[in-house]
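Suppose a colleague, Dr. K., hands you the sequence of a protein chain of 291 amino acids and asks what its three-dimensional shape might be. Before reaching for any lab equipment, you can write down a predicted structure in token form. Begin with the sequence itself:
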Amino acid sequence: MELVKKRRPSDILLGFFLLSHPGPVFIHIIAVTVFILLAAWPRPLWGIVALLIAAHAAMQISIAMINDYCDRRLDAASKPDKPIPRGLVYPREALIAGLFMIVVMAVLLIPLNPLALLVSLLYLALGQAYNLGLKSTPLSGIVFALALPLIPLYAFVGVGRVLPFLFWMLPAGVLLGVALNLANSVTDLEEDAAFGAKTLAVILGVKGSFLACHLLILAGTALIALLSLLHTVPANPWIMIPTLVVTCVSVGVMMLLFGAEKPVATRKVHFYLAATTCIVLAGGWLIGVIA
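The predicted structure, expressed as tokens, is then:
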């Protein structure tokens, strides 16, 4: 990738757009939007909904920008097409922008339920801890596992509604969080291994990471099905059964179309499919509970 020596305004805009990790952040925004609308239904206050979505987006962008700042030296060697190695964004600019987005997040949440800010700050702390070193250790999976259940919790406390069901999302979130961590990490597994990172995906290897990812999603599906079947978390069967079937079919598709023997370029698609599957599973469960 050619290094940009003299930046034009369009180069800077492109750099900050890429620095925000638009693909993964967009998935997070979809997820939090779904949960916020479900939490606020049937009488959503659109001003509160907009503030919650915007604040979560600012937080995710902050995590993305500081991630690239922390990885700038590694990216210069392994991913020269990223915005900082290309010279589209200077490291100091990335750091300042990432910190600024934290301020934006806080300002947007101050008028709302203080618990929403608390949950958001906890998620932010996990994300930045991942950036600052945990991503290169097996604990990276734990970060994802702890962060994932915070998204629906953030949505519900943000609109002032707390359900006992949310606490049962913790064990399910642990399973799905580790699965998403593996799906995300496997896209860069060889580079991480080459630079000495000891992520969970590196320890398991490509084949083991794919297998564990799929089994963990199925384990989360089985746990949710069991909680519904035993009426520990009562849910509408007309919603739950299709949700569970779609999840299992999606995992089956992932097992057939993705894996260690497939081209490396397909791993990013696998991550997006795994993330979408987890959103469908968690969202369908939530709809089934509150329906």
